[in-house]
Amino acid sequence: MKTYSLVINGRSVPSDRHFDVKNPANGGIVGSAPKATKEQLELAIEAAEAAFPAWRDLTSETRAEYCMKVADRMQEAAEELAQLITREQGKPLNGLGSRWEVGGAIAWARYTASLDLPVEVLQDTNQGKVEMHRKPLGVVGSITPWNFPVLIAIWHVIPAIRSGNTVVIKPSPYTPLSTIRLVELMSEVLPQGVVNCVTGEDFIGAEMSAHPKIRKIVFTGSCATGQKIMQSAAQTMKRLTLELGGNDAGIVLPDVDPKQIAEGLFWGAFINGGQTCAALKRLYVHDEVYDAVCRELVDYARNIKVGDGLLDDTNLGPIQNRQQFEKVVALVDDAKKVGGKVLLGGAVEKKGPGNFFPVTLIADMNNGQRLVDEEQFGPVLPIIRYTDVEEVIQRANDNPNGLGGSVWSRDIEKAKQIASRMECGSVWINKHGAIQPNAPFGGVKSSGFGVEFAKEGLAEYTDIQVIFS
């Protein structure tokens, strides 16, 4: 078993205390992660602060070249990263799993490296010239979740450093090892102190969000934690980008071909075992095609194998941690009690050390029931029957979250009209959750604020300064 270290100022820094990181497929120990002290967090922040002036003053082209070097180094270590992700997170190596995650992270890094925020001339007349400059903030604090430990780290770190900031990142204690290794790789090609990694207990994140030398927090995770970050960040007026929970609704119109859309519906809901913020979490199906859609979903889903992600024939892995596993079990049990009809799955088939939960489809659900109202973040999909389109739009919007949504129809223009009335940051037509680096992504309502990706996401790591001359 390997013992990992913190990464501060470009060097591995050992810790006196560690914690075990477990494989959710078998309960085995993947590695020993360091528990950072408050003093070590201060060292990481000081390193980032010291590195900032020189990094900020590099040309934009030079920082872009550094970001490309990060992508190249990740490419060289892609298989190592993928294996580590699967062992600590649980997702399969193949399909839409760890190799796909690493490949996506590399592609995202390369695209973000290509972006720029040049000076904009707002006025150039006899009355004078007005320029808008985008200036980096300083030290950025990144707090990442356990569902995509490398991909989301790249979403946070690369735009931060591309725009001239330095970073201290704290990964989830459930999946810290692949992020530590990622930052080690970054440190091989970046100047010292530009990216630092600390791991450990919850107080680290709380200290970061309140720290006066951290100018911005970018956080992906639960609404409850996002609220705590907002409260603690208020004292120092930090900039925030919060991508919080989602309870995405999909609306299936009566003109669809149920067999044709079944695969897209399934993967929209069950990518990463449903452990995805912008996964399809509530499916509203018109009465005319309700039974057929349910039947086709069951036919497709019954061939999906849940198992150890290191096995070649595994399609979906375990739920990443026991706390989330127990939440999924409780929501499914409640759905059964209130009259939900289990079409597939619904119960753990055998006891064992892994957090395996079967692919579960539950029909005849409705708003006001826990499995519909709450974000399950697991391999379970509630299916709700409707007859009136106006009513179903209201039901889809009747939730505090607003991250993503989808409309399924042969009539693209009609689908777009419905999409425009959905209260969420992204809406897909005949697919779900297909984010891409050239399109801004973020939530409304309780799903957070600010956006990631594209130039709009890059700009979130800067302050505006207007120069009049």
From TrEMBL:
Residues 16-466 form the Aldehyde dehydrogenase domain. InterPro entries: Ald_DH/histidinol_DH, Ald_DH_C, Ald_DH_CS_CYS, Ald_DH_CS_GLU, Ald_DH_N, Aldehyde_DH_dom, LUC3-like. The keyword Oxidoreductase applies. Keywords: Oxidoreductase. It comes from the Bacteria. The active site is at E243. SUPFAM superfamilies: ALDH-like (SSF53720). It holds the Pfam family Aldedh. The keyword Oxidoreductase applies. Belongs to the aldehyde dehydrogenase family. This is Aldehyde dehydrogenase family protein.
